[in-house]
Amino acid sequence: MELLVQVRQLCRGKYPNASLPHVELDYLHWEPNWVEVPNDVMRDRTSALLYS
User: Fold this and answer.
1) 49 pLDDT band (50/70/90 cuts)?
2) Cα-flanking dihedrals φ and ψ of residue 36, to 5°?
3) pLDDT at 50
4) Going by C-beta distance under 8 Å and a sequence separation of 6 or more, which residues neighbour residue 43?
5) In which element (H, E) is residue 9 found?
6) What is the pLDDT of residues 4-33, one digit of tens each?
7) Element (H or E) spanning 36, and its range?
8) Eight-state DSSP code of residue 7
9) How far apart (Å, rounded) are the C-alpha atoms in residues 35 and 52?
10) What is the secondary structure of 15-35 as a DSSP string?
11) What pLDDT does residue 23 have?
12) pLDDT of residue 8
């Protein structure tokens, strides 16, 4: 299943027993001094968090 579909289902409550930690997206999306990470890095970080 595509990652985006899984995230949408989680947000809609399809998996009410899933225990996911709260993570600020800014933490994944920004480097020091507010340098934006490339999209592929953001995808990798998000995937690593969801599949860990």
Assistant:
1) confident
2) -75, 135
3) 79
4) 3
5) helix 3-11
6) 777 777 776 776 666 666 788 898 999 999
7) strand 35-36
8) H
9) 25
10) -TT-------HHHHHEEGGGE
11) 81
12) 73
19, 34, 46 from 4: Cα distances, Å = 18, 25, 10
Residue with tokens 């990652």: 3
Two tokens at 44?
């990798």
For 6-41, b/e burial (b = at least 16 CB within 10 A) is eeeeeeeeeeeeeeeeeeeeeebeeeeeeeeeeeee
The pair of structure tokens assigned to 46 is: 């998000």
Confidence (pLDDT) at 33: 95
Sequence length of the chain is 52
